[in-house]
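for the recovery benchmark. tokens below, seq after
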């Protein structure tokens, strides 16, 4: 019964099928408390490395400060996370940030 109703719904609302069709392109997504601030900090430093403005070690140190400060209110216990930026070098080394 549900399958029949779903097919009828998609027939009546063809735009709703777009989301179903896009599932085959879905990939894992980085998510954390205050994702925007953390991703911005990471992205800014990756761009700085790529433009030659900073060394990777310096960029990692700078990028670590943002998640540490913006995520601190969520827990009194320190947490450790390991992130590999997907737009990092294509040689497999990536840009790793731990906090």
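predicted aa per position
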């Amino acid at each position: 019964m549900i399958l029949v109703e779903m097919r009828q719904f998609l027939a009546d609302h063809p735009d709703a099928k777009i989301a179903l069709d896009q599932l085959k392109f879905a990939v894992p997504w980085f998510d954390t408390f205050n994702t925007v601030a953390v991703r911005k900090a990471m992205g800014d430093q990756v761009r700085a490395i790529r433009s030659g403005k900073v060394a990777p070690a310096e960029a990692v140190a700078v990028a670590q400060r943002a998640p540490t400060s913006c995520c601190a209110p969520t827990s009194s216990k320190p947490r450790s996370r390991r992130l590999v930026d997907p737009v990092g070098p294509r040689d497999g080394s990536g840009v790793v940030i731990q906090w």
